[in-house]
Amino acid sequence: MSTNAILTKPAVSTSVLSQTLWITAFAAATAIGARVEIPNIPVPYTLQTLFVLLAGAFLGARNGAISMMLYLAVGALGAPVFSLGGFGFAKLLGPTGGYLIAFPVAAALVGYLVHQYKSFPAVLLSMFAGLLVIFTSGTLHLYAFYIKDLAAAFTSGFLIFSWWDVLKLFAASMIYFEVAKRWRRLG
């Protein structure tokens, strides 16, 4: 085996290890974001979506989605990683379930779009699209299973969060854009 082949083998292992660590780190950050919350009924204000957007942007479509699937799996299996210290599969069926289930899709969408279009306005629009996926899914879930009135579900599941999520949207976009000047993609 040549010296060159030997030197490249650890880089492949390190890359897989690096990807695994970043995937896990963003899943953990999302869990921490769930614990930073302002109580609200039926869905609290949290920082989860900030990390969903950043996971997609930094990790790319596939790894961003995997990170969010890991987050959901850990919570479904019993770790208290959801808002209000929630855990278990039943939490995915509760009032916040529609939002949670959309996390992998939103991360994948953001990851795909951010890596296609790299200007700040494009990053901002990509993350906005990810938020639309999350809030559309969450609002429809509230409507179908809890509120049974589309206008009320839209108000309590979408509109009420608009100011909070505009802040997270701009924060995530700026964080990504500044960090991406040095590291376009993690893992």
What does this structure look like?
This protein is mainly alpha-helical. The chain has one domain (3-180): Arp2/3 complex 21 kDa subunit ARPC3. Helices cover 76% and strands 2% of the residues. The protein contains 7 helices and 2 strands; from the N terminus they run αββαααααα. It has helices at 3-35, 48-76, 89-93, 97-116, 120-147, 150-157, 162-180, and strands at residues 37-38, 45-46. Strands 1-2 form a two-stranded antiparallel sheet. Helix 2 crosses helix 7. 40% of the residues are buried.
Give a summary of the structure in a few sentences.
The protein has helices at 3-35, 48-76, 89-93, 97-116, 120-147, 150-157, 162-180, and strands at residues 37-38, 45-46. By secondary structure, it is an all-alpha fold. Residues 1-13 have low confidence and may be disordered.
How are strands sequenced across the largest beta sheet? 1-2
Q: Helix count, per DSSP?
A: 7
| Overall average pLDDT | 90
CATH architecture annotation name: Orthogonal Bundle
The poorly predicted ranges are 1-13
Radius of gyration: 18 Å
Fill in the CATH topology.
Arp2/3 complex 21 kDa subunit ARPC3
Share in helix: over 70%
Tell me the β content.
Answer: under 5%
Query: How does the helix and strand content classify structurally?
Result: mainly alpha
Q: How far do the termini sit from each other? A: 27 Å
Order of helices and strands: HEEHHHHHH
Integer tally of domains: 1
Strand count: 2
- Major sheet description: 2 strands, antiparallel
- Globular, elongated, flat, extended or rod-shaped: what is the shape? globular
Assigned CATH class: Mainly Alpha
